[in-house]
Amino acid sequence: MTVRFIPNDKGNPPGKLADAELHFSGGPLDGLKLLGLGVWERRNGGRNVTFPARQYSVNGERRSFALLRPVADAASQDKLRALILDAYAAHEHEVAASA
C-alpha cells in the first residue's frame, strides 16, 4: 500500500493540509484506491487524519457515519492514522528538499 497526497493549496477549509489516498498493490485490493482521507492541522499544532464518512440527517440534526471502522480493536485505526501521518511528514520533507 502507498499513500498519495493532494495538497490543499486553496486553504479552504482552514486547517486542512491535504487529501490522502491509499493505493493498494498486491492481494485482493490490488489496483484499487481508497479516497476520502484528510490530513488536518490541529489548533494546538498537532496533526490528525480523518477517514471517509457519509453524512446523514436525523430530526434535522447532521450526523456522520464512518465508512472505515475497526472490527474489534478501536486502536486499529490509530496504526493507520500514524502510518499516514508519517508518510505525510516524509512527503513534506521531500517537497521542501526539492524547492
Task: List key phrases describing it.
6 strands, alpha+beta, globular, 23% helix, two-stranded antiparallel ribbon, 99 residues, 1 helix, 4-stranded antiparallel beta sheet, 39% strand
Q: Look at the helices and sheets and give the structural class.
A: alpha+beta
Order of helices and strands: EEEEEEH
State the end-to-end distance. Answer: 27 Å
Oligomer: single chain
DSSP strand content: 35-45%
Radius of gyration: 15 Å
Biggest pleated-sheet summary = 4 strands, antiparallel
Total strand count, please? 6
Low-confidence stretches: none
Average pLDDT, to the nearest integer? 94
Number of helices: 1
Molecular shape: globular
> Approximately how much helix is present in the residues?
10-25%
Please state how the strands of the largest beta sheet are arranged side by side. Answer: 1-2-3-4
